[in-house]
Amino acid sequence: MSQTSGFSAGRLTLLGGGNMGGAMLRGWIAAGLDPASVTVVDPSPNDALAELFEAGVHHRTAAPDEVQDVIVLAVKPQMLDEAASQLGAAVGADTLLISVAAGRTVASIEGLLGAHSVVRAMPNTPALIGRGITGAFANARVDESKRALADRLLSASGPVEWVPGEAEIDMVTAVSGSGPAYVFLLAEALAEAGVAAGLEPALAMRLARHTVAGAGELMIRSTDEPAQLRRNVTSPKGTTEAALKVLMADDGFGPLLTRAVAAAKTRAEELAQG
Ligand SMILES: NC(=O)C1=CN([C@@H]2O[C@H](COP(=O)(O)OP(=O)(O)OC[C@H]3O[C@@H](n4cnc5c(N)ncnc54)[C@H](O)[C@@H]3O)[C@@H](O)[C@H]2O)C=CC1
Ligand SMILES: O=C(O)[C@@H]1CCC=N1
Predict the structure, then answer these.
(1) How far apart (Å, rounded) are the C-alpha atoms in residues 226 and 204?
(2) Which CATH architecture does the domain made up of 12-166 adopt?
(3) Could you tell me the pTM of the whole model?
(4) Domain 179-272 adopts which CATH fold?
(5) What is the pLDDT of residues 71-81, one digit of tens each?
(6) C-alpha 155 – ligand 1 centre gap (Å)
(7) In terms of CB atoms within 10 Å, which end of the chain has fewer, N or C?
C-alpha cells in the first residue's frame, strides 16, 4: 500500500468495518493516516481488513472507553441505534461524528449521541481504489478545523462535494452512493446482450468490463462533456446510432434511470423514518 505524506485525525474509531467502512479505512491508510491511531469496532469485520489489522489498525468488538477525536459511523442504518448505544464513553464534547449511514439524518444522530459536531456524508465503494466521490453536509456545530479534518478524511477516497442542505444528501445517495451498482448492472446487461447476440460468455464479459471501465476513464480524463463523447462514437447512419435509437426512446434509458434514482431517493427518505 503506497503511503503519501501523512496526516493526523487524532484518535479515530470506525464503527462498522464492512464494505463501505473498510473502503474508507483503506483510503485513510493509503493517504498516510497512522494505522495505530485507528480502531475498528465491529464484531465481524470484512475479511479484507485483516491486512490492515496486521499493519497496526486496532480491532475491537466493543467501543473504546477513551474519548475519541473522530468517530465514523458506518453500520447499516437499521443497526445504527443499537451500535451507537455502546459509544457513550467514546463520545466527548469535542468529538467529530461522521455518519455515512444512508437516510439517517443529523437530527437522528444527535438524538442518539447528543448535540455534537456531525457530518453526514455519502461516499461510494470506488473509494476502495481512491476513485470514489463523496457528498457531505455539516451541521452548524462543525467549525472550520473540524470541517477541514472531515474533508481530509473523506477526500482520501476521491473528491468531496459539500452540499448546503441536508436534503441533498438523499439525492447524492441516489445518484453516486448507489450509482456504482447501476454501472455494474450496465456491465452485466451489456455482457448478457453480447451473449444473446452470439458471443461466448467469458469474451462478452471481458468486452463489457473493459468498455465500461475505458469509457469511465475517458470521461474523467477528457475535457469533453459525456454527450460529446457519445457523439464521438456515433457515426451517421452507423451502428451506434441504431442502438441509441432504442436506448434514447421515450421509454428508454433516461426515463428508466430517472425512475431508479427517484426510487433510491424515496428509500433514503424512508430510512430516515426508521
Ligand atoms: N456499500 C455502499 O456502497 C455504501 C454504503 N453506505 C452506508 O455505509 C453503511 C455500511 O454499509 P456497508 O458497508 O455496505 O454494510 P456492511 O454490511 O458491509 O458493513 C456493516 C458492518 O457493520 C458491522 N456491524 C453490525 N453491527 C454492528 C455493531 N453493533 N457494532 C459495530 N459494527 C457492527 C457488520 O459486522 C459489518 O461489518 C450503511 O449505513 C450504508 O448506508 C454509504 C455509501 C455507500
Ligand atoms: O444500498 C444502500 O442503502 C447503500 C447506500 C448507498 C449505497 N449503498
Answers:
(1) 24
(2) 3-Layer(aba) Sandwich (3.40)
(3) 0.95
(4) ProC C-terminal domain-like fold (1.10.3730)
(5) 999 999 999 99
(6) 19
(7) N
